[in-house]
Amino acid sequence: VSILIPVWNDPMIRTLEVLKHSKHRLVLGGAKASQSTIVRSFVSPPTSSDSVHRPDPTARRPTKVCDPYGQGGRPLGHSDAKGLLSTLDNGWFLIESPKKNEQKEASPVSTASSSPKSLTKEFFHPDFICGSKFISIVSAVAHNNNHYPKISLERRLMKKEKAWRVVTKVCCYTPTLGGLSFNDFHVAMLIDVEAARPEMDKILLAESESSKKHI
Question: Partners of 174 in the beta sheet?
C-alpha cells in the first residue's frame, strides 16, 4: 500500500481529495499537489499462511512457545521462591495463593495453588512526603526494568501503640503467570539497593522507630 501525502507551501490550500485508483493504492492529492510530496509505503498484512508458525503475542498467558520469563509459562514454586527469598534483605515475605475453595474469584491464570502469589515488603517513613519520595524511586526502578510492582502509601493507625505510622507497601508479582517470576526478585533486589543508600536515611525509618515518630 502506498500513500502519497502532499505538503503545500501555500497556507490557503488545505483541502485534500482522496482518489482510490486501485485496491492496494491510495493517492492523496489536491489542486497544487505537485509542489511537494511525501511518499510512505506500508507493508501489506501477512496472509494466514504466513502466520501459521507465529505465536500469538496477545495470548493471555505465556507458553513454552512464547515464554518471555523463561519459566515455561508457570510461576515459581515454593522451593525456588524460598531459595530466592534468602538472597534479599530482611523484611520481604511471600504471600501464598488462596485455595480454590477459599477464594473463587482468584485469577484464572493462577493454576498452581502451591505457588506463592506475590513478594511483599513494607517500608516506613517519617511523614507522607518522604513516603511519596520513596515511591518515586521505586517507580524509577520499575520503569527502568520494565517490570512493575503494586505500590501503596498509607498513614496507618496503630491502635495498640496509640500512634500513626506512614507505610509504603511494595508487592511484586507477575500477573501473566499468576504468581512470581525471576523478574520479581530482581526488582526487589534493586529496591533493596536503593533503600540501602546513605541518603535514604532521611526518608526511611526502622519499623521500631516509625510508630514513635507519630504519637
Answer: 179
